[in-house]
Fold this sequence. Notes:
This protein folds into two domains: 6-172, Phosphoglycerate kinase, N-terminal domain (Rossmann fold, 3-Layer(aba) Sandwich), CATH 3.40.50.1260; 185-383, Phosphoglycerate kinase, N-terminal domain (Rossmann fold, 3-Layer(aba) Sandwich). By secondary structure, the chain is of the alpha/beta class. The chain contains 15 helices and 17 strands. The strands form four sheets. A six-stranded parallel β-sheet has the order 5-6-4-1-7-8, with helices on both faces. The chain has a six-stranded parallel β-sheet with strand order 11-10-9-15-16-17, with helices on both faces.
Amino acid sequence: MAFRTLDDLGDVAGQRALVRCDLNVPMQDGEVSDATRLRASVATLAELADRGARVLVLSHFGRPKGRELDASLAPLASALSDVLGRPVRFIADCIGADAEAAVAAMAPGEIALLENTRFHAGEEANAPDFVEALAKLGDLYVNDSFSTAHRAHASTEGLAHVLPAYAGRAMQIELDALEAALGAPQRPVAAIVGGAKVSTKLDVLGHLVGRVDHLMIGGAMANTFLVAKGVSVGKSLAEPGMAETALDILASAEKAGCTVHLPYEVVVAKEFAAGAPNHAANVFEVADDEMILDIGPAAVEALADALKTCATCVWNGPLGAFEIAPFDAGTVALARIVAGLTASGQLKSVAGGGDTVAALNHAGVVDEFSFVSTAGGAFLEWMEGRVLPGVAALETM
């Protein structure tokens, strides 16, 4: 995939750069409780400002129905200023005469945060008149928000068609990492996919079997595959109605030459509670009153052996009920194995999705993977092989 980056920009001194960031951050008592997304925007905003552009930050916040005070981006101006280490002014709208006058008064190198784009219905509708109103404020457009790239909104996709469009540094890093994971990866490639339901990851699994060499399935969704193969899983969470679909996925994998790894050893308990009595068992030995809550240590070792033969790994979803000990052990152990292989240079590792990031943080290895995406829906849709409108709009011939 080819797209223009900030390296393709010429002299931008005095030009107005509309930069789409994702500042939809968690707030508590009026303060930002997690500044990860703010920090992700620093490289692009600082570079453009240092090059003399007038930098205009666009973002949504929440799901307001019109102009709602508690969804205003005004409180984020100071928080963004803190992470940037330079002033950020606030402009009380993102379109209109007042906004245009405020932008015109900015000096080269200044940064301003515009009001919530979702205060206008034209944002989510990608309405041409709203796109045009936004474009009046800028000379060029930079998309630095992969996490919203799956939405064809005015500020995420529409602007790229009416202004010279570029990928920001965070977007560039993300796209390069994803290309290295599934676009043009070093082989063999392993995909670790966990989670509760096959139904929510059906498109992911269907896409991956034709793209990877090893598909490692964990979490409760693995139980559905076991049921499809005639294995009794006791009281475990499963989707018997998806058994035929699971068999179709296994057949597609076999046809594509993809090895599917299902856990042959699992950790079972009679109740889902912290510290509940549990034991490892062969999948054919799960009692009727037991539930599978994690993969067993022998299954972890088997996956580790396969990963040691791979050059690339992409991970989405935990392998067990990682929120409650001791059923986090399988996910933690495999995460540390992937981190170790990455550190040794044997493996390029890319992970993403909310639960995945939480699990890797829990394992203490989130900084040891090659790349970890904080995007939720966009990462999942990328794994499904879907076209992301915000990315497609940046592509060049």
